[in-house]
């Protein structure tokens, strides 16, 4: 079987959950199941400068992982207008002759690339994983209003409030375009029941969808942090530092605990690239006001286990509907209970009072109360650790994807 993977970035340049999982899945299928193919990861001038005469660049030493340089992307329509540049992909795809084309994101790649693939590889089966809500929501796929309120689904009136300068026809055209484009896919995968519900509630056809959890590499858990006094008061944040992931909520909760003289430590790990000056100024001000919090910066995926050794809890205080954060699975792999906002796919993955705790969303005082309970309740941490189930492993995720690919090919041959 030959596969072509496309993703909106490469984890060597931007270590997001989608990028990490896409590469891990590609390598697992290659190394364990003999699948041949290519991983194309889109990049822009933000990450790399273009090379003269080609859209293709090397991605490290791997001969089957390449960077696809694409710029000029329209984030509202998810459109890549550089059709001249895209045309240079045609001979590459024709030579690969993929049986399966699996697209993990439309950012940078654009709807035009899908049309190109259909023309030059008409026998390939197309698979799309909706790792987030970009096909539904033009507001950066967040299902979050410009005022920061949770959005239960796109509507013309609601979207016009977020995009007052857009004519209604643009919003209607975007919705029709997304449904038409993804209607060409043989399978649409979502990693959580919550995400499936959001797409079906918007009227997408249920038969094309399948819930397919992501997976994390198998391996031993790091040891628990020694706590001779019995207190489990070390909290870790792992993820991109931005407004949506809730880092400001955590810093403000930590400040409240410090003001109440509650012993604790909060450590934030993650990159802060591509953030606005206004957000970074707010982040740095909140960090300065939280004496028991520290920011350690970006980390490589292979460092995550070592960093988790120093924490008792993993905190995910997101203010938007997360789909299925990979860090939840990583936390459970290392036997760390998770404290998360009680909404979306995260609340689906973390069972309140069983393997973690839910906190109110966008509420630093409410989060501080949950953190205090976690730190001061004897035996709570141990009981939640006992409730943790092993997450889906990468090997299992690869087997399930391979079955789905084979079923799609069998349907086409029938």
From TrEMBL:
Family matches, as InterPro entries: Glyco_trans_4-like_N
Pfam families per the UniProt record, alphabetical: Glyco_trans_1_4, Glyco_transf_4
Protein's UniProt name: Glycosyltransferase family 4 protein
PANTHER family: D-INOSITOL 3-PHOSPHATE GLYCOSYLTRANSFERASE, GLYCOSYLTRANSFERASE
Keyword terms, alphabetized: Glycosyltransferase, Transferase
Stretches assigned to the Glycosyltransferase subfamily 4-like N-terminal domain: 16-217
Highest taxon of source: Bacteria
Protein species of origin: Belnapia mucosa
